[in-house]
Amino acid sequence: MTHAIRVHQTGGPEVLTWEEIEVGEPGAGEARIRHTAIGLNFIDTYFRSGLYPAPNGLPLIPGNEGSGVVEAVGEGVDHIKAGDRVAYVGPLGAYAQERVLPADRLVKVPDGIDDKTAAGMMLKGMTAQYLLRRTYPVTGETVLLFHAAAGGVGLIAGQWAAHLGATVIGTVGSEEKAALAKANGYTHVINYRTENFVERVKEITNGRLCDVVYDSVGKDTYPGSLDCLRPRGLWVSFGQSSGPITDFNLALLGPKGSLFATRPTLFNHIASRSDLEMTAGDLFDVVASGKVRIDMNQEYKLSDARTAHADLEGRKTTGTTVFLPE
Asked: Ranges for the Enoyl reductase (ER) domain (predicted)?
């Protein structure tokens, strides 16, 4: 028997319960892994609260990313074997000491990257990869705005975009987070609690505005994000930490400059095995080279998931957070 965090009814952090579960043997195309670290992400709170419905209903085990050691593989699995260090972004179920999952979601972790780093960077790091490299290919000519610059994706994206030569503008909610963002690649940082981010973007860019705005905040930054874009610029809405946007008006894009808008997700970008390997490989390379650091800013015991979720939703965390299975 092993333990996991389960949700029997949606709600606040209090619905997260620490329970004994049974983990079976892997079937064809599957692998059983023993977690050494598990990533905490804002999307975990969406499934817990019911904002995103659980694909297989309740009860559910939250969590989409982790790292660990392969314990056993099922029939037809030949790209990994027992004893391999692996990491993944995959189906729900990461908040567990052990689990079985599709083996094609697992990638081997290079020797130069430790388990906590791997667990904490897979979802956030591969999100940064597709945002900067595919959704809008960032170059040295790019001027971009990234909301929640001191968050997990934001800190990785700031470093990566700076490495690509972009002018990187970020928004944060405190002076402490502003200092953190500046230390992670941001050329300019705006404290949205004390400054109007739209007016500051206009000042910083001398009225040119941004080529692309990356927005994981949602309700609180809309429609201001659109006003930060140059004509034919791109608004990338990839999250909603402040709540969903319920009044999006497609007709606004015309008078605001024939803007483009998209709502991408990581899972569409890594659906095929080849895309997963390419995305993870690009991330592993940029981290191993030292161009991007993954700072572990918080660690919690897995059994303390309630506290971790409360801290995350209370905006008390910065950067990357991992759970350590007991």
From this structure: 11-323
